Amino acid sequence: MKPLGPIPQGYEAVEGALAVDGISVTDLIERAGGTPLFVYSSGLIRSRVAELRAAMPDRLAIHYAVKANPYNPVLGLFSQLVDGFDIASGGELAMVREAGIDCARVSFAGPGKRDEELEAAILAGVTLNLESEAEADRAFSIAEAVGIAPRLAIRVNPDFDLKGSGMKMGGGAKPFGIDAERVPALARRVIGSGAEWRGFHIFAGSQALDAEAIAETQAQTLLLAGQLAQETGVPLPHCNLGGGFGIPYFPGDQPLDIALIGSLLAERFAELPPALADTDFCIELGRYLIGEAGVYLTRIVDRKESHGEIFLITDGGLHHQLAASGNFGTVVRRNYPAAIATRFGTEVEEEASIVGCLCTPLDRLADKAGFPRAEVGDVVAIFCAGAYGASASPSAFLGQGPAKEMLV
Ligand SMILES: *Cc1c(COP(=O)(O)O)cnc(C)c1O
Question: Is the pTM value of this prediction over 0.85?
Answer without folding.
Answer: yes
